[in-house]
Amino acid sequence: MSELARPIERRQTITAADQERLRRQLSATWYVPRGVIGWFSVADHKTIGRRYIVTAFCFFIFAGVLAGLMRLQLAVPNNHFIGPDLYDQIFTVHGTTMMFLFAVPVMEAMGIYLVPLMIGTRNIAFPRLNAFSYYVYLFGGVMLVVTMLMNTAPDVGWFSYVPLAGPDYAPGKRADFWAQLITFTEVAALAVSVELVATIFKSRAPGMSLNRMPLFVWSMLVTALMVIFAMPSIVTCSTFLLLDRLVGTHFYNPAEGGDALLWQHLFWFFGHPEVYIIFVPALGIVSSIVSAFTWRPIFGYAAMVMALVATGFIGFGLWVHHMFATGLPALGLAYFTAASIVIAIPSGIQIFCWIASLWRGRPRFHTPLLFVVGFVAIFVLGGLSGVTLASVPFDLQVHDSYYVVAHLHYVLLGGAVFPLIGGLYFWFPKITGRLMDDGLGKWNFWLLFIGFNVTFFPMHVLGLEGMPRRIYTYPDNMGWNTLNLVSSLGALLLVLGGALFVYNVVRSYAWGLAAADNPWGAETLEWSVSSPPPVYNFLHVPVVEGRCALWDRSADAPIVTGIRSDIREVLITDVMDAEPVHKTEYPEPSIWPFLCAVVTSAFFIGSIFTPWALPVAILPLAITLVGWFWPKKRDREREAEERHEEAERRSRPVPTMREARA
Amino acid sequence: MIRKSGCGLPRAQSRGLPRVQSRGIRDSLWLSVLACLAASCTGNQATFNPHGPIARSIANHGWWLLLMCTLVYVAVMIAFFNAVWRRRRDTDDLPETARRLTRNVSIAVALTVVILIGIAASSVVAGRGLYSPGGAGALTVDVVGHQWWWDFQYHDVTPSDVFTSPNELHIPVGVPVVIKAMSTDVIHSFWVPNLMGKRDLIPGIVTNTWIQADQPGVYRGQCAEFCGHQHAHMALNVVAEPMDRFQAWVQHQREPAREPSTDEERKGRDVFMQSPCVTCHAIRGTDAGSHVGPELTHVSSRLTLAAATLPNARGHLAGWIANSQSIKPGNRMPPNALDPADFQALLAYVRSLQ
Amino acid sequence: MNGEADARRTLDVAALPPMAFGNQGLIWWGTVGFMVIEGSMFVIGLVVYFYLRLQVRDWPPGLPNPGLRFGTWNLLVVLASCVPNLFAKKAAEKFDLAGVRVWLGVLVLMGVVSVGLRALEYTTLNCRWDDNAYGSIVWVLLSMHTIHVATDVVDSGVLLALACTGPITKSRFADFSENSLYWYFIVAWWIPIYVTIYFMPRWL
């Protein structure tokens, strides 16, 4: 193998017939398998991404229904609609589902679907791992839903503080299901994050140097790195909880040298980056929408990238602000106050840059941009209430009250869900080939925007009026009645808005107007392919000439040739400048990731009930893993090809040096 | 392990104080007046209705915070809507415009930093003195959290003067009271918004805070860390009274239980000693000595029952004893099916424990 | 589109190699990603160890120190295993299949010895996981590392089997090379974990 192998710039004649032949060959090579076995064997990022999105929204609806039940119970004082046991399960599962089964997976899903398309490659790295992660996520989520239906759902809050969640005060298996759900979702998220980092760093189209990457790709990169560094903490702490509960360890038992606060440190060291893991992709979505609907690049690209990176870093230094009431030393708390305030600065930079982008562009108010407006209006308020929470004295009054419930919903719904829905309106034509109804979209936006504010703004006041969170009812004479009723009525509007969204999706999917390749005139690479994209993404991998791939593309933009179309060959490029380095072959679809996920999930669930699950699971796990990685027919073919090539290479001349770039 | 601490309470001049029923009634009247005042005052349990120095400092800081946040929000929204709705000009895409935008964004970022520094400074100022009171001679009370009630323990150098006051914390007006907080089971949080910010009660750790009221009154507090199924019904009352009334209250609480004065009350005491009640509830001056549940020595002198869930009246007491599970489902007290005559006697006895 | 031929500018990558070692290859990124994740968990485990140390007066609380013998032997074995690991990596990077087979075989053997020593280590820890928080964190730290060693021995064993049965493509040599990288990672982490488990009770 020659180390001097370089890509060669030249002019080639490509006829229409050549294109057609290429199209047929790529479609055959990158096929998505059909049939029942085929459905479980798919390793295409677009299919897996769509499944993730649909599944995440099913969980969103489930958690939304739970929230509706909570608001019904809290609409009037001393209500007997739901008793404490069920209410505690409901609020725990609502939070757990929204955080672990909806928010993080759906953002990862947007990355899984869009990143390979935006960077000009044919699939995500480690595609079978991608499929595996989806099934593990699905099974974990199904497990939690089943526990809710069987009155054995976790009931100790989505952050499951000990000793309440420990073996002494949480009898039964409820808290174990929570802890194991963490394992399911973290395994899935970590796998996807490693794939995203490898994909983004190593398989960008030539010419897409790091400073030409779309802001959405940057946001997914920062998110993936945050996941990799944050999630080990919660895997560790939830495992310690399982061990305390199942085999008698004493990590959180103060009587035997353990510590209840250890849980809080470990949990929140993950928990704070977690909210940025949810939020940072939304920032990328907002940038995509703003540039597409102003027909201008985002103002201040470098500042925006640095703001994303800074948010990722600083987000790891804030976690103790969830523990201000625990009596930790004042000097330590002062540091966390400072860090919690400082993180407002990169967010502020982003808001100002978007305002500047809108200022100089020509905004067209289709539904996606409306949701961006909603995002700004809601998230800025949430971010400001967050700054107030960073102040220890003020936090000591409003911590664990409805003020925090208001804050977290403003930043999560406003900061993540509004951009997400806007992003779905934006990318729906690309994913499905049909446009969503813009008129219905505007109704959707207003219902959600008004409903959201009517539901959650009063909660700021309720918290300041002394209403703690996580209470299943409240007395009649506290002065909380009216605002709770108003909030519950607002929740009705939210439900209507959510229903309208689902209706619009289904209706548009079935009868929507057919979408062109680039209905919005946007600038990123996914808009250069058909809607929906072909299975192989790009007929020719492009060479990117500027930061806005489509707007900066010259008439004579080069394309990449020499990538084989008869096998799943992918171009691997350099981290910094995306210079082509080598080619690699991605694996064919396979049933083994699914089988491995089944065994893994059975092991996770079994180990809640008995430690024997581990020895019993080892052999099936080993079998499925070996099946996954054992060479397939294609490998034998490849071996033969390589031998043949090696023989040929002996007689081929040394390749020419690369010509100087124009 | 609960550390004992001297609380500096003034000692009674003589120990042989008569157990005067009329004094109990006077106290009850006084407490009822305070309770009415508190209940009618909107803003009970509200952050922006401070009645003590800590809460006042936080409230002032809070107003400043909310004002700054409102101004910033309005400014950002104005800039945003101006950007969205402005009339477009041909000069928008020129490099000079980009430079001007850069300058404006930089100014906005600089302003943001200045405002954030101001908020941080205000926070530091408001936080001074948050952890311990300045003056010496502060009273110390231990707060012990249970699922789902509070035990306020008043210590003294003399062991026989130690007493507990479940769910009702009395403090003298104008005097800082040091709180040492601990828990016997899960994490709770002691929070009386009119008077102070919250402090968690964490098993295995003693946390410290302090509380002070500057006006007499009854201030409601509530547990602010999810602690299980009856977290919603784990509230408390802080009764702030002038020093002389407070000392009188302390004296009274130190006394063992009032002897029954009627036959029915005596019968009620027998019922108590022979029923499951005695396995959890102590009454000082009798053989009942279990501290699993709240002590009942002076239960009928308190404003509320069941951790400020029920008013302390005969009917509510009857309902609570008969079937507390229907009021606070999941709490540790079982229902009690008693013969009606015994039940009435028991009620009479408990109501006599002023 | 219009049926005519057009001469397009192209970047022809046909001559590029089908794989690359190290950080130019994808497997490296997957391996390093996994190392960062597992490394973070080890860091957290060590942090928890020292956090729990601060909660009590005596360390170990009410228990004897762990026995040094098997842990130290294990340290020597895994450090020594870096030799066949190094040669296996070099052989892989030279596409020397015979060399890979030999050195990977030696590595797997030494790995099995290490796992056996690890089993003996558990018996001389002088504590149980349910004695107290100290026992819990010692068992968990040791077990976290054990799981890594055991799975990497199996992993290397499977790769060894593949090296013997084939088919062998060029990219398989990248798998061999990155497997060595991961083995280094496991050996490297044994050092701080060994020092923590066996010497912190004696020093702190």
The class by helix and strand makeup of chain C works out as: mainly alpha
Shape estimate of chain A: globular
SSE order of chain A: EHHHHHHHHHHHHHHHHEEEHHH
Number of helices of chain C: 6
Number of helices of chain A: 19
Helix content of chain A: 55-70%
Cα end-to-end separation of chain C: 77 Å
In terms of DSSP E residues, the strand content of chain A is: under 5%
Layout: helices, strands, pairs:
The complex is a heterotrimer of chains A (662), B (354) and C (204).
Chain A: E1 8-14, H1 16-29, H2 35-41, H3 45-74, H4 84-119, H5 127-149, H6 174-202, H7 215-247, H8 260-294, H9 301-314, H10 330-342, H11 344-360, H12 367-390, H13 392-398, H14 402-432, H15 438-464, H16 481-511, E2 559-561, E3 569-573, E4 580-585, H17 592-609, H18 613-629, H19 633-649
Helix pairs in contact in A: 3-4, 3-5, 3-16, 4-5, 4-6, 4-7, 4-8, 5-6, 5-17, 6-7, 6-17, 7-8, 7-9, 8-11, 8-14, 9-11, 12-14, 12-15, 14-15, 15-16, 17-18
Chain B: H1 21-40, H2 53-85, H3 95-127, E1 139-146, E2 149-154, E3 163-166, E4 168-172, E5 177-183, E6 188-190, E7 199-201, E8 207-211, E9 217-222, E10 235-241, H4 243-254, H5 263-274, E11 304-305, E12 310-311, H6 314-323, H7 340-352
Parallel strand pairs in B: 1-5, 4-10
Antiparallel strand pairs in B: 1-2, 2-3, 5-8, 6-7, 9-10, 11-12
Helix pairs in contact in B: 2-3, 5-7
Chain C: E1 6-12, H1 26-53, H2 69-80, H3 82-93, H4 97-123, H5 133-165, H6 170-203
Features:
heterotrimer; A: 662 residues; mainly alpha; two-stranded antiparallel sheet; 19 helices; globular; C: 204 residues; 6 helices
Can you describe what's shown?
Chain A has 662 residues and is mainly alpha-helical. Chain A has 19 helices and 4 strands. In chain A, strand 3 and strand 4 form a beta hairpin. The radius of gyration of chain A is 26 Å and the shape is globular. Chain B has helices spanning 21-40, 53-85, 95-127, 243-254, 263-274, 314-323, 340-352; strands spanning 139-146, 149-154, 163-166, 168-172, 177-183, 188-190, 199-201, 207-211, 217-222, 235-241, 304-305, 310-311. Chain B folds into 4 domains: 1-39, no CATH class; 53-131; 139-254, Cupredoxins -  blue copper proteins (Immunoglobulin-like); 263-351, Cupredoxins -  blue copper proteins (Immunoglobulin-like), CATH 2.60.40. Chain B is built from 7 helices and 12 strands. Chain B is elongated. By secondary structure, chain B is α+β, with helices and mostly antiparallel strands. In chain B, the strands form 4 sheets. A 5-stranded mixed beta sheet of chain B has the order 3-2-1-5-8, with no helix packed on it. A 3-stranded mixed beta sheet of chain B has the order 4-10-9. A two-stranded antiparallel ribbon of chain B has the order 6-7. In chain B, helix 2 runs antiparallel to helix 3 and helix 5 crosses helix 7. Chain B is 38% helix and 16% strand. Chain C is mainly alpha-helical and 204 residues long. Chain C is built from 6 helices and 1 strand. The chains are: A mainly alpha (662), B alpha+beta (354), C mainly alpha (204). At the A-B interface, helix 4, helix 10, helix 11, helix 12 and helix 13 of A face helix 2, helix 3 and strand 8 of B.
